[in-house]
Amino acid sequence: MSNPVVLNGHAKSNTLSLYGSFTEGDGDVESPNKLLEQRRGNESPSSFTGNSQFPETESELPNEISAPYEVPQFPIEQIEKKLQIQRQLNTKVLEDRRTHYEPSVGGVPEVEDLDEHDLYVPHFQRVSISGEDTSGVPLEDLERAAKLLIQALEIRKRYMKMSFQTFSSTAARFLDPDKEQQQHDDKQTIEDEEYVELLNRAARTSFDDVIFTSLARESMDNIKKMLESDMSFDPEHGIHHPPTTKPWEAPEIPDTEEVFVNNGGVYNVYPNEEALKNNAPCNYQYPNVIQFTSDFYVMCNMIADGPLKSFCYRRLSYLSSKFQLHVLLNELRELASQKAVPHRDFYNIRKVDTHIHAASCMNQKHLLRFIKKTLKNNADEVVTAAGANSMTLKEVFQSMNLTPFDLTVDMLDVHADRNTFHRFDKFNAKYNPIGESRLREVFLKTDNYIKGKYFASIIKEVCSDLEESKYQNAELRLSIYGKSKDEWDKLAAWAIDSNVYSDNVRWLIQTPRLFDIFKLNKVLTNFQQVIDNIFLPLFEVTAKPSSHPNLHKFLQYVIGFDSVDDESKPEKNPLFDKDTPKPEEWRDDENPNYAYYMYYMYANLAVLNHFRAEKGLPTFVLRPHCGEAGPVQHLVCGYMLSENISHGLLLRKVPVLQYLYYLAQIGIAMSPLSNNSLFLNYHRNPLPEYLARGLVVSLSTDDPLQFHFTKEPLMEEYSIAAQVWKLSSCDMCELARNSVLMSGFPHKTKQYWLGPNYTKEGVAGNDIARTNVPDIRVAFRYETLIDELSNIFKNFKLEMEYRDQQQK
Fold first, then answer.
1. Which of 402, 415, 289, 303 lies closest to 362, judged by CA?
2. Stretch 77-87: mean pLDDT, rounded?
3. 706 lies in a domain?
4. pLDDT tens for residues 330-354?
5. Residue 399 lies in a domain
6. Where is the composition biased (Polar residues) (predicted)?
7. To pair with 676 at 20 to 30 A between CA atoms, which of 29, 262, 396, 479?
8. Are 533 and 483 within 8 A, CB to CB?
9. Is the domain of 424 the same as that of 459?
């Protein structure tokens, strides 16, 4: 029988997903106090600098340091008193951890499994409110608000579950405290001790205060063999995932005979022809139009409810003030914690550009150099053909009376300026270099006469820059317009034939809302054709990978869908109901509204994800442009149907939705420089307000070609935000960590970047040695969220108990 695990003085079974140093013996356990004395500088429970070695060997693990880590000297500009305070904070961390492993603030809800966070939580100055009524609103309003907010959370949870998208695990536990929460995509914490030790060896990072007191000799030998044989890790910087050597090798999935039939705009899947004759489709859940419109109207009425608006506004104001107090009380502690972490700072933590379009992912100087280089080396290559007439690249420029010497950044005219503000049409025209759509066709399209050769080359140069930076990653958007069914095959052939792959890049598919233009040009006759062209090839390749072999390979790196266009376009009616024409009946020249597009994209995606999950294939998420401009009902669609959104500017005008986005921890990819040129001046951008309140926000570039000047547009975005809003190092690292959490990179990759147990809640899921986010900040965010949720659910529970008593 194995001995128990000792964790900070608490006995736990060794089946816990804890990673640490393994010691072998006959039951002698090193005291927790001795372990604590071995720690230096870092308050994170995951940092450990004591000797950790295998039995009968003197080799040291690579995360060991030769001498106790000392905090370096601080800048000489700081006053001596501040220096002394910071040194005292660093030296007292150890004593604080011995005596202050205190639980979270009072009022912890009656939800299981909060002890793990409490065991890890660091000591810091907390802001709490005592007394009976802490909400600041009348009891009747509080009860009504709690009921409505819980109803809204239930709606989102239901829609996320139907579509295999992620719902906040914290909110899910409050909604159903008796149910063990499952996460899609097998995003569980690590239970395999050998894999944990392998990751520790790779990461030269932290160990928990854990002693495995008894481990079989056979297991120890296996681990040693794994570590000795594994050469894919860089022992110096082990937070890097091993590189992919054969990216286009797809899993072999046997072909099956499913049949797909459109049912009111949503595809139903039948196992075979026999099932189709018997009208027995697969039981894949998705909301029908009546159910969706009913929930949609409930949410729309909710955001207009007066007492609820007042309640949410007060809570958001409280969250802002609470964060300001937290910063005043704990800023020095957070800074000291960051300085105590070796080899990790803002520059070498992972960042993901969560919103960037492939056609504009390069800066203007990069595009200019590429055009000049291509014109010099490929002048005689035929690049376009109009009927029987073909033109070489040289002839294209001659027709514009231009030579390479004439080209300048100013002549390219791709940068947004003051004339694009509230003029999305002028902004779209900036995608045409020198104002010529021909050059956009030649250089920035995947489907052209040269099969996207030049576009692939410049994308690979951008990918090379990302790989060189090592810590920057991007989620590039490629377009599928829904004009024809062969778009998917052409896009996949472009990616694979040109070998456009990078470990630093994943793809999203953006579908522009342009049905009215296609209808006007007689490309399409009804809206159902758009749905057919976008989704039917995906159902076919899922059932029969051999029917679209390139697409089957390409979809491994497609993480989701985006819906794009000018949100400020006027809509006759932003709502739609059961009387709205079905897609096959929509032959109007008017464009369907935003909610119409989103519902049919979501419903088909939900069915497709059920089908792909059954086949063991990766599923997709919905991450649309939402809330950049236009009606606030767009944000209701985003709340109900999307895992994350991009922009979210209009949340500043809708306190109910903003509070719900906070409670559900919905990711928001914000692009302040893009907004500054199009819809909202930089100093009015709500990003710092969202961040202070605890919304999950990240910084992204949107269109470096139009908005940025440097080779590293994402760092440019961070640097400007830090200067204008005076963001601290902790704020910047929190934004970067958020970007990784909300990104679509694989679960195992995120374990390298954020820590093996990043899916755990609170401090237990943070590894400061990888994220550089202090445990104090993570604990504050988690405890504040718990307080808000418990405040709502506690009052709802009391109201339900009171009603039960009245009925009796």
1. 415
2. 56
3. yes
4. 999 999 999 999 889 999 999 999 9
5. yes
6. 43-56
7. 479
8. yes
9. no
* Shared-domain flag, residues 669 and 593: yes
Q: How many domains does the chain have?
A: 2
Task: Indicate if 486 and 571 belong to the same structural domain.
Answer: yes
Task: Kindly state the DSSP code that residue 665 receives in the 8-state scheme.
Answer: T
pTM of the entire predicted model: 0.80
Residue 645, beta-bridge partner list? 668
Residues 722 and 706 in one domain: yes
In this structure, the number of other CB atoms found within 10 A of the CB of residue 709 comes to: 12
Same domain as 710, residue 646: yes
- Residue 621 makes CB contacts below 8 A (sequence gap 6+) with 165, 166, 559, 560, 561, 642, 643, 644, 744
Q: What residues form DSSP beta bridges with 392? A: 382
626 has which bridge partners?
Answer: 647
Q: What is the average pLDDT across 764-782? A: 94
- Is 237 one of the catalytic residues? no
The residue from 398, 422, 444 where one domain ends is 444
| Six-digit token string for 108 | 């912890």
Residue 513's domain comprises: 311-359+445-792
- HEC secondary structure over 766-801: CCHHHHCCCHHHHHHHHHHHHHHHHHHHHHHHHHHH
Separation of alpha carbons 754 and 777, rounded Å: 15
Give the up-direction half-sphere exposure of residue 9: CA atoms within 13 A in the CB hemisphere: 10
- Report the run of H or E that residue 479 belongs to, with start and end: strand 472-479
Digit-coded pLDDT (tens) for 90-119: 555 444 444 443 334 344 444 444 456 666
Element (H, E) at 496: helix 487-497
E strand or H helix at 558:
strand 558-564
